[in-house]
């Protein structure tokens, strides 16, 4: 069930089908019944490629989570480990294999996702188990389709590895993933990029293309342009609280692999006579994607426009149900009945989103939310960014969640092109005394990543950047937006502005600003085989793939979708990233927690 | 002119005709008696081993290889062990399976290629019988040993030996057996008397062919069709049973009236018939039994195979012509032929390295999909390292160069190539190789010149080798990282003294790194730990490891106000933060009396709205009201609203003539609110708006 992947400008279901085919082929290689032992991190992303039914069709009878000790008993011929290539996982696998009962003639296999690793195989060899595996294979799952216009590698650590640890593994996978994409959707003739990582990925892509030599893709290119953007070109956007519906769901409850878990109280259907008893205690789990008509309609709206959209929808649905009174003839009744399932689905979808909107509204109308947003907006508009902020001090004094504090302090630093040493040290000391000295490592990390820094020059570039790129729009229209700034109620995400300017009038118009942002900007062209040059119909939109290296927020995605839909934009966007993130998950990935803390 | 289609016969969907192309060129005086022989599939070469049982050094068996037309291609004396079986692989390599389980591999020109073993237990038990079989997975070998156990390898190029389960009650060699490929698995079908068994990886299953003539008491011969789809069984009663190899359907049964076991039995197609049939050969007789109901057709001999065969015969120009004629994609066709040619070229010992390298480069040029690293590997295997390095230079895929460079001990070069490829796994591989190969000093020095490799190795050490990590930082005089390292280590340390010791090391490093701030706060941390321990000892409160904030809260919670006060002074906690903290702690404890005293102690640096709000948060509006009057005018409305005093809020808002505040109060009014109040607010708002 992934029809929603094929509705977009680019049929991403092709990618999913290719991934499914490869999975089936691997499963068939291990003849007979099998049990899969999962690296737990992989189950979420895999769920988007194949449900249990597919596995079952290929004789997967049991599933376990990878754990130390022995693999639980299961009457199967094959045990297959689905794992990321990580050394610590190899040690667990070795333990599993070595403690296997010799009487059982179960065969072992490993499937590395997304790539096999010599280092891991070496480790298995050292542990003396390498020979125990009948098949050691790789499952190249780099880019996973999350929606009709959205691909993610869901690599949680990508940003940290690239910008903190100088480990470019995820960029190698990105380049490989883009090669796979080009194999399926044709060579992308134009590549633009901004940032060190973007440059590195583009270099690898061009090199890989040379290496593949003759096996050039003979497919008519689907994408006209690829835009590679480093997350560190725009450190500001993820720090701001997203104000679209989907963005807020993610900020408040966190969306993982297309699912959200919500507090159950609002979702229980009260039946007569049951009163308050039997309240569900398990969180309500909902899948969120464009397969749900209503969600597709409201996800990218500013939250303030969601209420109106929901009540409009409510009217339409009840009108549709009223139709039954008009159905007189058998034919009419039949017609009505045939539409019932669709209408009922729409009604339950409406009920769900009304409940979610209520939950969110409780939060967005609170003083805490309002005060926080006010300070964010002050920073983004450049108000008093050079002094210690009283609100932040008060929040620290009340020991508000640390990540909230870090988001605000980092935001102030970014909007001020660094903080005065005195201001920075004051914040750091306040944080260390309140939350514990161990966070000195986290603070160091944030400094390394450029999120927090002492001012080195007195010159602050941010106001220039803000003005040139029109990052702040005074009268953002939340109900009927005419600019991307509606996604943050005034702030237009820098990253998306770069994409917008690139499409029209081109980056040449903003050379000065590009120079202020970190890393090189560049353009590369890839030769197409003759005969594959696209003849554009008049009025036909260009398709651009925007790849965010280091992560992207739902609000940025919403802004790009908004651009795709604009009448005169001339460009449609497909979005790819190493990770779907928000300020909280992003900052968390950069934290350094000593073992005795977590 | 004769009718042109007259001699064409149907074969499945296609037609064929027979034309005599040549006569066999060989001259076999003794026929095939006392010979082991094998012919390669699709009309490949034929191997003969004469008198295989001869063992004396003076009279050894003779191995001869002929082309399919009987032209001698090679012959040599067999000096190795006793051969039980000969066979050919799909890529025209000759397999000689010896009694001791060793398999020797030769190319069709009689050059030795490699050898492998069918398992150590075979050496003792010996191979009694062996069979070579072909499947989509390659060429396989099955053997039965002296203990009547079967061992099987499905693909000799990716050797995985499987010892098949025991056959219950089998006391001698099976009367006949064959290898089947079913459900993507190779299995052995064997007959022991009238019993028929299928052996797969895990179980031995007894099976019965449906409708087998009841007169049969033993199955003496069996044949499986090339596709593994059909099976023929010959019984001691002279019946030939034909059916599907899964033993589900019988196709037909023929009574031959001959009871002697045949020499050979095979599946074929009869001219003018579309059905597969079975040919059975005895010494003097030949019989064709058939009429199966299904038709089958194979396209196993693909263009690929054809080109391979030409290449194995070193007929390069012809192969290239055919590729061009068939428009085979370059990387499948011409490139492959050229690669084989080059692999052959590097073995020409008489030519100099550069001559060969140049020749290869000129001929291969930029041909797409050429793997120079494969050619270089070949050169290296022939002992020509210099040539190999020269050839590797042409390899566009830096990743491909790495394994060979390592093998040739050019590890520095391997490292730069690995980095160039962007494949971090490859970099890790080279790094771990270097680590084992070099002494530590050189190893570190090498890494120092390669920052990418160094960062990756640090990543590795962070998870795997903490001590090495420290050495790396030391070597680079990276005091900041060393400081961080000690801090991190201190959190893993449970004993307080050791922990403080590590923190002291961190402080020293931070000072060396000129990072005064980190040094100072780490010193502060050490000081806090000591105070916490002292307080723990004196007051019995668990404090060690808490943040300063939590320590203060804990002290206040148990009424240790003096101690808290001391800490606040010693650690120079800003007043504002301390007031917040104490306010929260006292409210938490519901110590309202102490709170009031605190509020009056001096002018609050955080104002009094927090007092109102914190009391309300702890459900004490009574206490909260005490502070409303002390709140600044700007916060009055908020304070009144917090304690639920709508009227007070209204008064404050109206007094301040603030439209926004009046609106806030109005938004809190409900239908039960006094009408007069609402009207008063509305009027005031209207006035305020006019301004």
From TrEMBL, chain A:
Q: Which InterPro entries match?
A: Sec-1-like_dom1, Sec-1-like_dom3a, Sec1-like, Sec1-like_dom2, Sec1-like_sf, VPS33_dom3b
Its membrane topology is listed as: Peripheral membrane protein
Keyword terms, alphabetized: Cytoplasmic vesicle, Endosome, Lysosome, Membrane, Protein transport, Transport
Q: Where does this chain mainly localize?
A: cytoplasm
Task: List this protein's GO terms for biological process.
Answer: protein transport; vesicle-mediated transport
Tell me where in or outside the cell this protein is found. Cytoplasmic vesicle, Autophagosome; Cytoplasmic vesicle, Clathrin-coated vesicle; Early endosome; Late endosome membrane
Question: Which Gene Ontology cellular component terms are annotated?
Answer: autophagosome; clathrin-coated vesicle; early endosome; late endosome membrane; lysosomal membrane
Q: What does this protein do?
A: Plays a role in vesicle-mediated protein trafficking to lysosomal compartments including the endocytic membrane transport and autophagic pathways. Believed to act as a core component of the putative HOPS and CORVET endosomal tethering complexes which are proposed to be involved in the Rab5-to-Rab7 endosome conversion probably implicating MON1A/B, and via binding SNAREs and SNARE complexes to mediate tethering and docking events during SNARE-mediated membrane fusion.
**What family is this?**
Belongs to the STXBP/unc-18/SEC1 family.
Family annotation (PANTHER family): VESICLE PROTEIN SORTING-ASSOCIATED
What is the name attached to this protein's record? Vacuolar protein sorting-associated protein 33A
Designated gene of the protein: vps33a
TrEMBL record, chain B:
Identify the Pfam families for this entry.
Vps16_C (PF04840), Vps16_N (PF04841)
The record describes its quaternary structure and partners as: Core component of at least two putative endosomal tethering complexes, the homotypic fusion and vacuole protein sorting (HOPS) complex and the class C core vacuole/endosome tethering (CORVET) complex. Their common core is composed of the class C Vps proteins VPS11, VPS16, VPS18 and VPS33A, which in HOPS further associates with VPS39 and VPS41 and in CORVET with VPS8 and TGFBRAP1. Interacts with RAB5C. Interacts with STX17, MON1B. Associates with adapter protein complex 3 (AP-3) and clathrin:AP-3 complexes.
* Record GO biological process: endosomal transport; intracellular protein transport; vacuole fusion, non-autophagic
Q: Where in the cell is it found?
A: Lysosome membrane
Main location, first listed in the record: membrane
Q: Which domain of life is it from?
A: Eukaryota
Q: Which gene encodes it?
A: vps16
User: What is the protein's membrane topology class?
Assistant: Peripheral membrane protein
Record's family?
Belongs to the VPS16 family.
Q: What is the protein's name according to its record? A: Vacuolar protein sorting-associated protein 16 homolog
Q: Name one GO cellular component term.
A: HOPS complex
């Amino acid at each position: 069930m992934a029809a929603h992947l094929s509705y977009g400008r680019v049929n991403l279901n092709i990618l999913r089908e290719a991934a499914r085919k490869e999975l089936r082929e691997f499963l068939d290689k291990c003849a007979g019944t099998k049990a899969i032992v999962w690296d737990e991190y992989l189950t979420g992303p895999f769920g988007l490629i194949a449900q249990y039914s597919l596995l079952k069709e290929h004789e997967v009878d049991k599933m376990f989570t990878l754990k130390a000790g022995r693999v639980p008993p299961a009457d199967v011929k094959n045990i297959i480990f689905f794992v990321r290539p990580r050394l610590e996982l190899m040690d667990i696998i070795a333990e599993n294999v070595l403690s296997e009962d010799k009487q059982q003639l179960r065969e072992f296999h490993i499937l590395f996702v997304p790539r096999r690793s010599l280092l891991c195989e070496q480790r298995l060899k050292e542990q003396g188990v390498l020979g125990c595996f009948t098949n050691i294979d790789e499952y190249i799952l780099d880019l996973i389709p999350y929606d009709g216009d959205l691909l993610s590698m869901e690599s949680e650590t990508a940003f940290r590895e690239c910008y903190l640890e100088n480990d470019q593994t995820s960029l190698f996978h990105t380049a490989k993933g883009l090669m796979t994409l080009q194999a399926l959707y044709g060579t992308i003739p134009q590549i633009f990029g901004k940032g060190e990582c973007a440059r590195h990925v583009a270099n690898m892509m061009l090199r890989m293309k040379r290496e593949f030599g003759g096996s050039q893709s003979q497919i008519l290119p689907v994408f006209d342009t690829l835009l590679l953007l480093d997350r560190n070109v725009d450190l500001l956007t993820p720090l701001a609280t997203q104000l679209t519906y989907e963005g807020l769901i993610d900020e408040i409850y966190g969306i993982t692999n297309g699912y959200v878990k919500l507090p159950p109280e609002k979702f229980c259907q009260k039946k007569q006579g049951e009163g308050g008893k039997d309240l569900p205690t398990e969180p309500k789990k909902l899948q969120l994607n464009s397969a749900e008509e209503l969600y597709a309609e409201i996800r990218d709206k500013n939250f303030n426009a969601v209420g109106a959209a929901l009540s409009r929808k409510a009217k339409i649905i009840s009108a549709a149900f009223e139709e039954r009174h008009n159905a007189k003839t058998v034919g009419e009744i039949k017609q009505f009945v045939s539409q019932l399932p669709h209408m009922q689905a729409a009604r339950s979808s409406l009920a769900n989103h009304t409940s979610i909107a209520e939950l969110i509204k409780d939060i967005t109308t609170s003083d805490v939310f309002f005060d926080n947003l006010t300070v964010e907006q002050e920073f983004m508009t450049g108000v008093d960014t050079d002094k210690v902020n009283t609100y932040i001090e008060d929040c620290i004094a009340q020991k508000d969640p640390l990540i909230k504090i870090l988001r605000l302090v980092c935001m102030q630093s970014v909007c001020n092109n660094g903080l005065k040493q005195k201001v920075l040290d004051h914040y750091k000391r306040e944080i260390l005394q309140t939350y514990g000295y161990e966070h000195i490592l986290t603070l160091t990390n944030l400094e390394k990543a450029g999120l927090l820094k002492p001012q080195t020059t007195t010159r602050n570039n941010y106001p220039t950047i803000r003005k040139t790129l029109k990052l702040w729009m005074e009268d953002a229209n939340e109900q009927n937006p005419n600019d991307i700034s509606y996604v943050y109620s005034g702030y237009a995400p820098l990253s998306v502005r770069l994409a917008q300017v690139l499409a029209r009038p081109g980056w040449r118009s903003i050379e000065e600003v590009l120079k202020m942002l970190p890393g090189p900007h560049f353009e590369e062209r890839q030769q197409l085989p003759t005969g594959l040059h696209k003849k554009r119909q008049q009025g036909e939109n260009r398709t651009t793939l925007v790849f965010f290296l280091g992560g992207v927020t739902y609000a940025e995605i919403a802004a790009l979708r908004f651009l795709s839909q604009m009448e005169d934009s001339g460009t449609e966007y497909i979005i790819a990233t190493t990770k779907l993130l928000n300020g909280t998950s992003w900052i968390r990935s950069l934290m350094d927690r000593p073992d005795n803390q977590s | 002119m004769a009718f042109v289609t007259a001699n064409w016969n149907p074969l499945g969907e296609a037609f064929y005709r027979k034309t005599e192309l040549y006569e066999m060129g060989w001259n076999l005086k003794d026929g095939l008696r006392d010979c082991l022989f094998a012919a390669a599939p699709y009309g490949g070469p034929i191997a003969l081993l004469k008198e295989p049982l001869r063992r004396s050094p003076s009279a050894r068996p003779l191995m001869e290889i002929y082309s399919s037309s009987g032209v001698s291609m090679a012959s040599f004396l067999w000096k190795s062990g006793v051969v039980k079986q000969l066979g050919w692989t799909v890529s025209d390599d000759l397999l000689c399976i010896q009694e001791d389980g060793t398999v020797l591999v030769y190319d069709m020109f009689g050059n030795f290629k490699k050898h492998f073993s069918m398992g150590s237990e075979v050496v003792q038990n010996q191979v009694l019988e062996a069979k070579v079989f072909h499947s989509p997975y390659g060429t396989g070998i099955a053997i039965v040993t002296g203990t009547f156990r079967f061992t099987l390898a499905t693909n000799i190029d990716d050797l995985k030996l499987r010892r098949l389960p025991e056959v219950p009650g089998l006391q001698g060699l099976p009367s006949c057996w064959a290898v089947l490929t079913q459900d993507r698995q190779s299995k052995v079908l064997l007959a022991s008397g009238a019993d028929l068994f299928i052996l797969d990886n895990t179980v031995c299953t007894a099976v019965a062919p449906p409708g087998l003539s009841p007169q049969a008491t033993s199955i003496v011969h069996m044949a499986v069709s090339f596709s593994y789809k059909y099976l023929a069984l010959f019984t001691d009663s002279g019946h030939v049973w034909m059916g599907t190899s899964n033993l589900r359907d019988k196709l037909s049964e023929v009574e031959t009236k001959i009871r002697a076991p045949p020499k050979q039995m095979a599946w074929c197609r009869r001219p003018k018939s579309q059905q597969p049939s079975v040919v059975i050969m005895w010494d003097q007789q030949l019989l064709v039994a058939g009429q199966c109901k299904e038709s089958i057709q194979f396209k196993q001999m693909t263009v690929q195979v054809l080109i391979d065969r030409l290449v194995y015969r070193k007929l390069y120009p012809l192969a290239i012509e055919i590729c061009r004629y068939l428009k085979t994609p370059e990387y499948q066709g011409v490139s492959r032929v050229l690669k084989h040619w080059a692999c052959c070229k590097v073995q020409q010992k008489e030519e100099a390295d550069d001559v060969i390298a140049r020749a290869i480069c000129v001929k291969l040029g930029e041909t797409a999909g050429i793997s120079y690293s494969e050619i270089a590997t070949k050169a290296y295997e022939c002992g020509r390292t210099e040539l190999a390095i020269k050839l590797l230079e042409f390899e566009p895929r830096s990743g491909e160069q790495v394994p060979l460079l390592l093998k040739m001990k050019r590890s520095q070069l391997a490292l730069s190539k690995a980095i160039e490829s962007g494949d971090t796994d490859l970099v890790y591989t080279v790094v771990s190789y270097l680590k084992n190969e070099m002494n530590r000093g050189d190893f570190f020095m090498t890494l120092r010149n390669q920052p990418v490799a160094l960062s990756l190795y640090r990543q590795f050490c962070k998870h795997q080798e903490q001590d090495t990590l420290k050495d790396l930082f030391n070597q680079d005089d990276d005091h900041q990282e060393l400081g961080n390292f000690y801090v991190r280590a201190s959190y893993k340390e449970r004993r307080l003294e050791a922990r403080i010791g590590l923190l002291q090391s961190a402080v020293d490093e931070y000072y060396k790194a000129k990072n005064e701030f980190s040094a100072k706060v780490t010193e502060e941390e050490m000081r806090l730990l000591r105070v916490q321990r002292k307080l723990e000892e004196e007051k019995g409160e668990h404090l060690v490891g808490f943040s300063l904030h939590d320590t203060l809260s804990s002290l206040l919670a148990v009424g240790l106000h003096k101690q808290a006060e001391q800490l606040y002074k010693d650690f120079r906690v800003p007043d504002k933060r301390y007031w917040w903290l104490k306010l929260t702690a006292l409210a938490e404890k519901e110590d309202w009396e102490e709170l009031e005293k605190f509020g009056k102690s001096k002018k609050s640096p955080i104002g009094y709205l927090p007092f109102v709000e914190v009391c309300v948060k702890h459900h004490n509006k009574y206490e909260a009201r005490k502070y409303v009057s002390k709140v600044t005018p700007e916060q009055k409305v908020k304070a009144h609203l917090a304690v639920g005093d709508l009227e007070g809020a209204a008064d404050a808002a109206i007094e301040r003539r603030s439209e926004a505040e009046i609106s806030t109060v109005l938004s809190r009014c409900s239908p039960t609110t006094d009408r007069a109040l609402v009207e008063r607010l509305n009027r005031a708002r209207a006035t305020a708006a006019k301004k």
